[in-house]
Structures are given as C-alpha cells and as structure tokens.
Design goal:
alpha/beta, Aspartate Aminotransferase, domain 2, Aspartate Aminotransferase, domain 1, 2 domains, three-stranded antiparallel sheet, 10 helices, 16% strand, EC 2.6.1.52, serine biosynthesis, aminotransferase
Length: 362
C-alpha cells in the first residue's frame, strides 16, 4: 500500500515515474539489461543523459551560455567546490544566513581558506525570517554572493532574488529543496545547484548549472571531480556518473512536462501549501513559526500547543498512513515536506487528520 510520504529527503517520487522505472527495470530499451547494468559510455546511456540535459534546459529555460553538470556528493559537496572554483585562498565571499544549511555552507567554504562576509544574518528571529529587499549591501570585491533559496529544516524561503544588492557580484544559490518546483530565471544567477533527493529523483545526484564565464578559474589543487570546467569538458563523465539517478531524473523531467511545466507545477505547489498553512493558521492548537512572507511552499513546519502530545500525534499519523512528519531533530515539532510529487489527496489526508487530532486532544 502506498502511503503519503512527507519526508524532507529522500522524498516521495511521482508514482507514474516509479511505475515506468519498475516496468523497464530488468530490460531497459530492449537491451536485455537493467539501466543499472549498462555502460555509461554506451550509446543508450549517453542518449539518456543528453535527453535529461535537453529536457532540463527546455523546462527551466537554461540559456546556451550556461553549462549543466551532473555531479556527485550532493549539495554538500558543492559547499567546498564553489570556493574551489570561484576563489583563491585569501579571497572573500558574501553570504546571507537564513538557517542551518546556509550556515553549514559558509562554514565549509571558510575551510577552503576564504573569508565569508555575512551581509545578513537572521539569527535574531531564530531563523524564522528573511531579510528585506535593500536591507543589506554586498561588498564589490566579493567573489560571489551565496544564499540558500529554501531552508529545508526551518521551512524558510527567500521571497526574492537579491540581484539589486549583488550588483556585478555573481549570485550562487542552493535551490535543493525547491529545484523545479516553479519557474526560475537562470540568468539572474552565476551558479544554481542542488541535490536531487527532494524534487529531482533519488539521492546521489547533484545538478549544477554554471554560467560559462565562471568556468576555468579553479584552483590548481582542486580535485578533478570538483573542477566544473573539467566536468563540463567531459560531459559530466570524467568518472562513472550516478547513472540510475540521472535516468530517473530524466523520467521526472518528462513527468513535469506532462503536468504542464514549471508554471503549472508552481501554481499547484502554491495551492497545496496555502491549504496546509490555512489549516494551521485557523487553529489555536497548531502554530507555524515562520513569518508569512518567508514561508516555504515545500517544507511546512508546525508545532502543537502541548509538546507532550507530539509522540501521540506522530503515532496516530503513522497509523493513518501519514509518514515522516517528525520535525528535524534540531528544531523539534512537525514538518510536512510537500514537494512536487505530493498529491492533493495527501494534503487533504493530513489536514483531516490534524483536525481530528485537535478535536479529540485539545
């Protein structure tokens, strides 16, 4: 029986994609082999990877002046790769801190011998807010401005792209937990990257989009698999790529197209999130801690009026087929991750369960 999986990642995948993958799992493209078994150098897989890139470019409007890289190590790997490709030791970068992932990215970047200038830190609110437009300045000598577009743990999303604040400084955005959940103007960024295990497929794949003029400046000691120029020149196949993740990524891209593309996906995601936030806001039993302008449409945290009821809430949810609602260990409470694959039925089931639990336990 399929359940409603609210996990933050690895996350629920579209059922039609899973069914297609299952149907061709042991005999892909009439090869008599699974996609897990074919060579990444073979004609079939090269075509598969090329189709995934072409579909991504079509869906997200990725210009020809950007390279698409299929990498390993997830977004965390890019925390180190970004300064290795964009800075030399002793350089500085700018960063916006809106939660735990942006803090981790800055910490890892500073391990690479660069200095992070924090232009906005939302610690005072407990990372329940984002900066206002025009409230910070980016130093002109910063090699890049980094921010996390959607903080998975805290359910905080940046409501704007800080192009005016950045000026000529390239913007680098971690979009892991909102990747392809809505339209994106790639040309506003120098680098867009994220792990696949939210909206794009299984864990193991990072998709990085890099403006071409930012290639070719990696430090001499940068490992080849982290050197964007080397990987671009090798079509992301310097080493054996995560073939199964790329294959599923391609299927998901075509599924998104079948749903009407990113504009339709964005409208659907906003409607799902609005229903859940409305249910929380209408209740005196549940609370969302994030300021409304900064609420994520992908990750919805909420707390119960009495934390002593958390275990009972989670046990009842599990019994009702509502899985993985426990909040991150660092913040507690509940968190519903409602990525592209989460259905309207899943949202309805959660809202109905929340209402019944409140009725019987408030």
């Amino acid at each position: 029986m399929r359940v409603h999986n609210f996990s933050a990642g690895p996350a629920q995948l579209p059922l039609p994609v899973l069914e297609q993958a299952a149907s061709e799992f042991t005999d892909w493209r009439s090869s008599g082999m699974s996609v897990l078994e074919v060579s990444h150098r073979g004609k079939d897989f090269v075509e598969c990877a090329a189709d995934a890139e072409a579909t991504l470019r079509r869906l997200a409007g990725v210009p020809d002046s950007y390279k698409v890289l299929f990498l390993q190590g997830g977004a965390t790997g890019q925390f180190a790769a970004i300064p290795q490709n964009l800075t030399q030791r002793g350089d500085s970068f700018a960063a916006i801190l809106t939660g735990q992932w942006s803090k981790k990215a800055v910490k890892e970047s500073e391990r690479q011998g660069v200095t992070g200038t924090i232009v906005s830190d939302q610690a005072e609110s407990g990372y329940a807010t984002t900066p206002a437009e025009g409230s910070f300045e980016v130093p002109a000598d910063a090699k890049y401005l980094y921010y996390c577009a959607n903080e998975t743990i805290g359910g905080v999303a940046m409501p704007f792209v800080p192009t005016a604040e950045a000026g000529d400084v390239p913007i680098v955005a971690d979009v892991s937990s909102m990747y392809l959940s809505r339209p994106i103007d790639v040309e506003k960024f120098g680098v867009v990257y994220g792990g696949a295990q939210k909206n794009l497929g299984p864990a193991g794949l990072d998709v990085t989009i890099v403006r071409e003029d930012l290639l070719g400046s990696a430090r001499p000691d940068t490992p080849s698999i982290w050197d964007w120029k080397v990987m671009a020149d090798k079509d992301s196949m310097l080493n054996t790529p995560p073939t199964f993740s790329i294959y599923l990524f391609g299927l998901i891209l075509h599924w998104i197209e079948d749903q009407g593309g990113l504009e339709a996906m964005g409208r659907r995601n906003d409607a799902k999130a609005a229903r859940l936030y409305d249910a929380v806001d209408a209740s005196s039993f549940y609370t969302n801690p994030v300021e409304k302008r900064s609420r994520s449409a992908m990750n919805v945290p909420f707390t119960l009026a009495d934390p002593e009821l958390d275990k009972d809430f989670l046990a009842g949810a599990e019994a009702a087929g509502l899985k993985n609602l426990k909040g991150h260990r660092s913040v507690g409470g509940m968190r519903a991750s409602i990525y592209n694959a989460m259905t309207d039925d899943g949202i309805t089931a959660l809202i109905e369960y929340m209402a019944e639990f409140e009725r019987t336990r408030a």
